[in-house]
Amino acid sequence: MAATKKKKIKNIIPENTFLFETAWEVCNQVGGIYTVIRSKVPSVINKWGKDNYCLIGPYFADQAEAHFDPATDFSSPIGKAVLKMQERGFDVHYGQWIVSGRPNVVLFNPYSVFDKLGEIKHFLREDYHISIPEGDELLDKVVAFGFQVKEFFEYLCLTGFCNGDVIAHFHEWMACLPIPAIRKGNLNIKTVFTTHATLLGRYLAMNDPGFYDHLSLYNWEVEAARFNVKPIAEIERASAHGAHVFTTVSDITGQECTHLLGRTPDLILPNGLNIERFDALHEIQNQHVQIKEQIHNFVMGHFFQSYPFDLDKTIYFFTSGRYEYQNKGYDLTLEALARLNYKMQKANVDMTVVTFFITRQPFYSFNPDVLQSKAQIEDVKLVCEEIKEQVGKRLYTHITTAEGPYEFPDLRAMVDDYLRLKLRRNIQSWKSNQLPKVVTHTLKDDANDDILNFLRTSNLVNNRHDKVKIVYHPDFISTSNPLFKMDYTQFVRGCHLGIFPSMYEPWGYTPLECLASGLPSVTSELAGFGDYVVNNIPDHDEQGMYIINRKGRDFNEVAEDLANEMFDFVNLSRRERVALRYKCEESSQHFDWSNLGKFYDDAYNLVVKH
Asked: If 41 and its partner were Cys, which of 55, 101, 194, 449 is the partner (CB 3.0–4.6 Å)?
């Protein structure tokens, strides 16, 4: 597989064409678009070559330090254009993005034209009926960035660069403002716009459980004003209507675009991953076991000070993503877990499920009790290591120097009293009569947190008799995290099942990342990924892609379905879970950009015909 990826793929992209790809998250890690663009780069360069492809993004010094390598050679047409832009006073940077493939990038500092914002906003209002309010820093940065990108393309066309076929592909509302200007200026540039979600749709879904049923009834202007996102909706609509080819990431988001943006997408461009980056091949089970041991260490420190359970009969579920209680399906996941807890108790299932909620909520600090418990169990472990070393040396000496018939010695006599006392004191200070904490941090608004309030109401608070335990971690996992000491990708490998039954999710990378890590997951057909799986992957359940049907169904019905899916998974044998892990990893190859990149190729071939 790796060998074929190194060959340049021909005859599937337009010939003699230059491709620009513009996104707010080029060299600027903010959210999911960063993963889309970064992971796609190697396959794009494989097809287009480095000389016919360039990315455009914003320049922020703190991000650039980690992601950007400045150029020393400005002899290419792009390099010369950057130098000319710099002469005109623009703070523009040319170099390479420090990711696989090392693509060329042009980065514009939005702040460098803030003195022109009044004039820029005036023409946006006059020419495209886009009204940008004062005092919104993000919108100001978006407007300033879009203006500079437009000026860059205008200059390139003046130099004759656009005499050949040039495609400019824009991702999301924060990068798409140049599109109307390119059309108005009649520049010889073919434009593609991909919306990965509409901002108005996200807000509507958060506030209307019947969002998809009501799509045709919404008045976009009224709703955009109600949620105070009208400028963004105007940007999205102007770009969708101005682009030569308009695309989105899933059929389900396509419906949203039709009603909220007033244009049905020409093509669907599903999101992939660079699966090679996740490949573990025959090591996949070994890696799972090793990382699971690290999760065991956390669980022992967190739970065992109150009561123990059998780690050999413990499986780990997790859910993660932006804190959108209904959109991300956290409400459904919690209800299903409460039902799973009851089902396991009633069936007397001899297993324990520990479920991690990994999301981000405002907090003051780690809960001091959680940190203390972690530190105390590490002290216990250190004393045990001391005892092991002392006993090991003394046992060896005793056996090798003893005379007469062999007798196994009394090991207790080989441990010094001070170590026995030290161990006893450490264990006594670590043990607790309190229930294990549900949340690992001290939240800023504990009383109004939806996840916590559900757990309190349902009494799913880590009681000894609960078969389902909860760990709510309101921050992302990283190697600097003192509780886990691993990155998110490693954490995923150590778990057994991902749960993402979203009500609104234009695509959804989390179940795909699970699949690439050899982990089965549950998602819904209202997520773009789930919708794609249902329509393109036969027997997806057997490959670890479980899809819950949510559309138009009663919440309680769906919760029962999800609880039963979890219950069935809990009852799999270890051998069956291992076999499923390998099937997941194998199935993930379908979602590699070497396969899904063909949809982007279709868009580029379509746009050059305009």
From this structure: 101
φ/ψ of 55, rounded to 5, equals -100, 150
Q: How far apart are CA 172 and CA 269, in angstroms?
A: 13
- The vertex-50 CA angle with 12 and 189, nearest 5°, equals 65
Give per-residue burial for 541-552: e unless 16+ CB within 10 Å, then b. eebbbbbbebee
For the chain, residues with pLDDT lower than 50 are: 1-11
3-state secondary structure of 444: coil
Output the pTM of the full model: 0.89
Cβ distance 584 to 543 under 8 Å? yes
The residues, ordered by sequence, that sit 6+ positions from 89 with a Cβ below 8 Å of its Cβ are 112
Residue spans of beta strands (DSSP E) within 116-236: 165-171, 190-195
Q: Identity (one letter) of the amino acid at 489? A: T
Q: How many CA atoms lie within 13 A of 553 on its CB side?
A: 17
- Tokens representing 238 are 């102007």
Joined tokens for residue 550 = 């949510």
Contact between residue 576 and residue 236 where contact means Cβ atoms under 8 Å apart:
no
Q: 299-327: per-residue pLDDT in tens?
A: 999 999 999 999 999 999 999 999 999 99
Q: Bridge-partner residues for 57, per DSSP?
A: 107
Would you state the structure tokens that stand for residue 306, as one six-digit string?
């109150």
Two tokens, residue 12: 């599937």
Determine contact, residues 499/310, Cβ cutoff 8 Å. no
First to last CA, the chain: 36
Predicted local distance difference test score (pLDDT) of residue 279: 59
User: How confident is the model at residue 402, as a pLDDT?
Assistant: 83
Residue 480 CA to residue 502 CA, distance in Å, equals 29
Q: What is the pLDDT of residue 278?
A: 61
Indicate the length of the chain as a whole number: 610
Cα dihedral 54, 59, 65, 71 sign: positive
CB atoms under 10 Å from CB of 579, counted, come to 14
Q: Within its chain, how far is the Cα of 98 from the centroid?
A: 20
